[in-house]
Amino acid sequence: MIPYATIEDASLALGRNLTTLESLWFDYSAAKSDYYLYCHNILFLFLIFSLVPLPLVFVELARSASGWFDRYKIQPKVKNSFSDMFRCYRDVMKMFILVVGPLQLVSYPSIQMIEIRSGLPLPSFGEIAAQLVVYFLVEDYTNYWVHRFFHSKWGYEKIHHIHHEYTAPIGYAAPYAHWAEVLLLGVPTFLGPAIAPGHMITFWLWIALRQIEAIETHSGYDFPWTLTKFIPFYGGAEYHDYHHYVGGQSQSNFASVFTYCDYIYGTDKGYRFQKKLLQQIKQESKKSNMQNGGDKLD
Question: Could you list the residue ranges that cross the membrane (predicted)?
Fold first, then answer.
């Protein structure tokens, strides 16, 4: 809660006029408790889980009708009906209501402990960007090792096999998992803000962007216009799709966001071998088609 009664009091304390964004933040948050602001994450996650994968539903249905999107589908032989996708969403919402939502409600003391602030001044765009980079890097590294644990015999059979029910992932399957996996993966997500605590707005952005990234990674489509293709060392949908395609036997592509951990620890060899093999097959097929075309001209 902002400890100022008016915008004038806040300006006096800061020694300058509030920016437009700071004035808007003051108007919205001044009378609200920090706990109330933190619980906004419940609404944000509900909207993200519900709406962000929705365009992929229409793409999948359109692909089933016309086949035009087959060129972007990573596993084109797999088709999902509306009922298949709705069943996944229903199961995710059950997990949200029974685990994710209550976890958000009771985890506020951890936010107090690491001193996520909600007052003024607001962080600069540069500060927000720098902290988000740290959060993604920390989460990616720690998630890598948690994910490798999930692919141990015990971890997979007892917990992680549920997430791998989707060998060809869809957007709604990103948070589809055993409740214990949801809880354990919350640790890597929290570590970044614990190491470099920032503003509540930064924390909101971090939670939202991480879930949106997970949905994109599980989309099942490799669109050439995806902006994440411009991010260095970013894995993306094709990279993670291979992990699901191989399934329970997979000892490859464990990283959640970037590819450097898999490269450093040698857990991307199967993926790189398959990708190289597919490129060779495509080149040989293209060469064969060109030769056949030349023979017909003769």
Answer: 35-59
What pLDDT sits at residue 274?
84
Here the tokens at position 253 are 């592509």
68: left (phi over 0), alpha (psi -120 to 50) or beta: alpha
Find the range with the poorest average confidence among 198-207, 235-244, 268-277. 268-277
**CA 48 – CA 215 distance, rounded (Å):** 9
Residue pair 129/119 in contact (Cβ under 8 Å)? The answer is: no
Peptide bond into 121 cis (omega under 30): yes
Closest CA to 130 of 174, 196, 176: 196
Q: How far is CA 177 from CA 58, 125, 166, 228, in A?
A: 23, 34, 10, 24
Alpha carbon separation from 198 to 40, 80, 257 (Å, rounded): 16, 41, 22
pLDDT band at 251 (very low <50, low <70, confident <90, very high): confident
3-state SS of the chain is: CCCCCCHHHHHHHHCCCCCHHHHHHHHHHCCCCHHHHHCHHHHHHHHHHHHCCHHHHHHHHHHHHHCHHHHCECCCCCCCCHHHHHHHHHHHHHHHHHHHHHHHHHCHHHHHHHCCECCCCCCCHHHHHHHHHHHHHHHHHHHHHHHHHHCCHHHHHHCHHHHHHCCCCCHHHCCCCCHHHHHHHHHHHHHHHHHCCCEHHHHHHHHHHHHHHHHHHCCCECCCCCHHHHCCCECHHHHHHHHHHHHHHCCCCCCCCECHHHHHCCCCHHHHHHHHHHHHHHHHHHHHHHHHHHHHHC
pLDDT in tens, 54-95: 999 999 999 878 888 999 999 999 999 999 999 999 999 999
